[in-house]
Amino acid sequence: MVSPVVSVVIPVYNGDDYFPTVLECVLNQTLDNIEIIIIDDCSTDNTNAYIGDVASRDPRVLAIRNDYSLGAGASRNIGLSQARGEYIIFLDDDDIIDVDMLLRLYDNAKLNDADVLVFGSEFINWNTKEVIDTPWTIRNDLLPVASIFSSCDIKKDFFHAFVWWPWDKFYNRERIIKRGLRFQEIRTSNDLLFTSTQMLLANRIAVLPNVLIQHSILRSGSLENTRFKSWECAFEALSGLKQFLVSHSLYEHRKNDYINYVLSFLKWNIDTISGAAFEPLFIQSRMFILDLNISESDVYESDLVNFLSDLISLQPVDYLLKSRTELYQKVNRLEPVLNKTLRRLNETSDSLVKSNESKANKENMIRSLNQENSLLEASLCSEVKKNMDTEVKLSNALNYIKSIEASKIWRGTKGLRSIRKWFL
Fold first, then answer.
1. Are 116 and 170 in contact (CB under 8 A)?
2. DSSP summary character for residue 32
3. What backbone phi and psi angles, to 5 degrees, belong to 122?
4. Is there a contact between 151 and 198 (Cβ–Cβ < 8 Å)?
5. Which residues have CB under 8 Å from 162's CB, separation 6+?
6. What does the DSSP 8-state code read for residue 213?
7. Which of 153, 189, 276, 349 lies 20 to 30 Å from 409 when distance is taken between CA atoms?
8. pLDDT, tens digit (0-9, with 9 covering 90-100), for 42-85
């Protein structure tokens, strides 16, 4: 039996209503010599039956079912242990891939003898099907000019050069096995340690800027939307990364890079978490940051300097109040820009109708303005959503404070608090 050249590992959980579409994209790849390892993480719907049916008809598919739910990290490790391909890729169960993706990745990685090949991606809103550009997933401004480079060639801000998710990276499988690194078996943030450390140890990194995959966002059942259930995992991932850096004598060299990544990663978690998890996440983030003994001179960007100061000095409710003010200001700045772009779009459309411009030129100009308008609308919607989320967090925090102040213990200790202030 001929060994596959590429192994595709896909963990899935309760994907009955969307996974068939995703899997069809993989089955229809122009590169035929592949194996598709699907790990059903103990689904409670018809996902397992569907996978079994596909596997019975297509010998390239290996169906595995966990005895109990292990999570995406452990499931990916199971897939890796079963893989036989020269190269391997780890997809999410709602990723939509280009029909030529695996062929283009394999040809490029083979040509460059790449340890890791990073490629272009974009988001797709699961509900509206709107496609969102994500050029920030590959930071060319931080990368060397050479087409093939090692991790050592990324001189500064290493952890912001790429995003540490697995589905836009194509790995040489044997080199993964030799390094002995695996995904953390935690509920969320389980890919951070694996993807970043594979890159840190890579001697041959290649980049293919072409967009070959659409990553689904805002799907109601995805782990991304339920991080509030496992916010502690962020600290497990960051602690694991620091431990790796120390054990491989890389921490002193990459210390400031690590510090800046910790700040941005925790800021993102704090700003996007929902519900009761906000306050404990905020407090734990402060403790984690204080343990690192960060100086402002170690921080690369002004917004992270401000975040560092806020995290240390503000209470959770005060941080929310400040965030609300800043978001209102952003929305107020964006609205006039959006209105101006809309006026330009209408004026251009009217003038093009009256002019003798070719149809193609008209369409290109209108398409360009529509794209600009869509980006502004997306930015405005994002800021408005953040504002609404912050309002909810703030309301919850204020209600919590009111409930404490109304309690018998709070009223009963009023005298003690009055005395205490004279001794502080």
1. yes
2. -
3. -150, 165
4. no
5. 118, 137, 138, 139, 169, 195, 199
6. E
7. 276
8. 999 999 999 999 999 999 999 999 999 999 999 999 999 999 99
